[in-house]
Design goal:
transmembrane; elongated; transmembrane helix
Amino acid sequence: MKQRHQQKLVIITMVLLIGLNLPILLLFDSAEAVMGFPVIYIYIFSVWLFSILLSFIIIKRYHE
């Protein structure tokens, strides 16, 4: 794997560590619901999905 791809994946990891850290999660901890789901669940799963898609795009470009 090329160095720049590794660097991008490390940056994604660092952003995930910050984004899923407890103080950030507590910002979304409320009694509000969107379409019946608590806001914190939507935040966690959207961050998770975004990181998976971004990692997939980076890895796919490496293999082409």
